[in-house]
Amino acid sequence: MKYKLPDKVTEVMDKIRNEGYEIYAVGGCVRNMILKIKTKDWDFTTNATPLQIVKIFPNSFYDNKFGTVGIPIKEKVKGKDQTAVFEITTFRSESGYSDNRHPDNIKWGNRLEEDLKRRDFTINAIAFDGKNLIDPYKGQIDLANKLIKAVGDPNERFKEDALRMMRAVRIASQLNFLIDEKTYKAISINSILLQKVSGERIRDELVKILSANYPADGIRMLKNFSILSIILPELEKCFGIEQKSPKRHHKYDVGTHLLLSLEKCPCANPIVRFATLLHDVGKAVTYKKTAEGVITFYNHEIFSASIVKNIANRLRFAKHDRDKLLCLVRYHQFTVNENQTDSALRRFIKNVGPENLQDILSLRTGDRLGGGARESSWRLELYKKRLIEVQKQPFRVQDLKVSGHDVMEIYGIGPGPYVGSVLNMLFSDVIEGKLKNVHKMLIQRIKDLKKESKSLWPKSPELH
Ligand code: ATP
Ligand code: MG
After folding, report:
1. How far away, in angstroms, is 379 Cα from ligand 1 center?
2. Which residue is closest in CA terms to ligand 1's atom 16?
3. Within 6 Å (CB) of ligand 1, which residues are found?
4. 414 and 323, same structural domain?
5. For labelling alongside 111, which of 161, 293, 351, 412 has CA 20 to 30 A away?
6. Ligand 1 binding pocket mutation candidate from 24, 85, 124 (most atoms within 8 A of CB)
7. Do 318 and 405 lie in a common domain?
8. Nearest alpha carbon, ligand 1 atom 12
9. Angle, helices 439-456/417-431, rounded to nearest 10 degrees
């Protein structure tokens, strides 16, 4: 099989080769090339030192102790400008991982074989020089068999860097691969070592699992490999919390319901998916069973939100993502009832924020389907329509599509209480549905009001 690299990649590799160095594409991009999946960010390995690379590419940046040089590459994707990053790392051979996450000392290697040996999985340890694949660990066979297998002894490799266990699950859920038997047995034995890995690194892999095509399979794998109990103990606790009781519609225990909700969530955004996965975590701490055997979880959404806040802080989610997670979880229990007033709906929109409305409805769809209910109901559909309708109405006088300036201009008056009273009249008419919040119509109404007011208050001192 002949593989062809994109022109930009060949250009960069040729430039380095012309200076007399070795250069290979390696890792995810080669994996993708063999699987015919498109790659955005390319990784390379070379015998040139970072400073020698920087000399060849003056616009590159090198500021990291791992010796990686980044070259920003501008490209057009579907007509839009995008910047991809090509990362070039000098051959490395690492030794000593006393903290299970950072090599004690990184040694520059001078042989490709050494560099491939320290890579995590056989399918990630294939190099490509533009013509030939260098594949000492038979990664191509594992790619064909859809298998993730550690390079070397999996036990040692996971002891060196515990994050590799999550990377195995992440790549398996992205590619729909299985994990080789020896490798997964080693994961089950070593999962406890993930306790020492930083929140940021765990978050990055978790977000990739949540973004994959089958995120719930990834979370299931984490559970089966005893990783979930280390990274998300709050979720692990939910498995086995029963919900089935008289007067309750629930079929599944809380943990199973949460996994199924994630599986059915129709939104691709990993934050919305994470909120869907965690929305009921507070049930583990609010569980109560009455004398009649009825199970309740009063105020569980408030407890869920507080637990999710701890999780988001521990995993160092950015503030913006954390706020969205909290908001979706806190308000997921919203009531859908045809007798609710418009103001109740408006209060809900104000709490959730108009930008999160679609996402909280996606969470609700996951929640319903993951609880064995139908995707929607006439009540929910009516509610969605009303949410759209009430948003068309202004919430405050300031949201009217005209301002005090329009009133002053039409009436030919200066600022004063009369301006406010005209605006209030318009606002009431809009709220009551007598008038639409459309600039042209409001202007006409102000003109009509002026005519009416002239006949009503011909001697008004403010009016001409
Ligand atoms: P993608 O970029 O598609 O998310 P990837 O496999 O390229 O997947 P990166 O994090 O970009 O993942 O890493 C690039 C390569 O570096 C990997 O393919 C692997 O060879 C190596 N690598 C990354 N992290 C580790 C690790 N923790 N231990 C050993 N090798 C690693
Ligand atoms: Mg990569």
Report:
1. 48
2. 27
3. 27-28, 41, 43, 119-120, 124, 161, 163-164
4. no
5. 161
6. 124
7. no
8. 28
9. 120
Same-domain status, 369 and 432? no
Query: Is residue 253 located within the same domain as residue 384?
Result: yes
Same-domain check for residues 78 and 36: yes
Q: What is the CATH number of the domain that holds 187?
A: 1.10.110.30
CB proximity list for 399: less than 8 A, separation 6 or greater: 437
- Is residue 236 in some structural domain? no
What rounded mean pLDDT belongs to the chain?
A: 90
In which domain, by residue range, is 24 found? Answer: 1-144
Nearest protein Cα to ligand 1, atom 5: 28
Atom of ligand 1 nearest to the CA of 208: 4
> In this structure, are 57 and 129 located in the same domain?
yes
Last-in-domain residue among 97, 128, 144? 144
Q: Does residue 237 form part of some domain?
A: no
Please give the number of the atom of ligand 1 that sits closest to the Cα of 119. 30
Task: Report whether pLDDT(419) > 70.
Answer: yes
pLDDT of residue 104: 59
Distance 43 CA to ligand 2 centre (A): 6
Same domain, 278 and 331: yes
Q: For residue 459, what pLDDT is reported? A: 43
Residues in the chain: 464
Percentage with pLDDT > 90 across the chain:
67
- Taking only the tens place, the pLDDT of each residue in 62-120 is 876 777 899 988 877 778 888 888 999 999 876 555 565 565 566 666 799 999 999 99
CATH of the domain at 407: 1.10.246
Tell me which residue has its CA closest to atom 7 in ligand 1.
28
Residue 102: what pLDDT?
Answer: 63
| Count of helix runs (H) and strand runs (E) in the chain | 23, 12
Q: Which long-range contacts (CB under 8 A, 24 or more apart) does 241-245 make?
A: 241/283, 241/284, 241/287, 242/295, 243/283, 243/295, 244/295, 245/289, 245/293, 245/294, 245/295
* CA nearest ligand 1 atom 24, residue: 120
Burial class (CB in 10 A: 0-12, 13-18, 19+), 133: middle
Instruction: Quote the tokens at residue 424.
Output: 């209030």
Which ligand number lies closest to the CA of residue 27?
Answer: 1
The last residue of one of the domains, among 144, 169, 189, is: 144
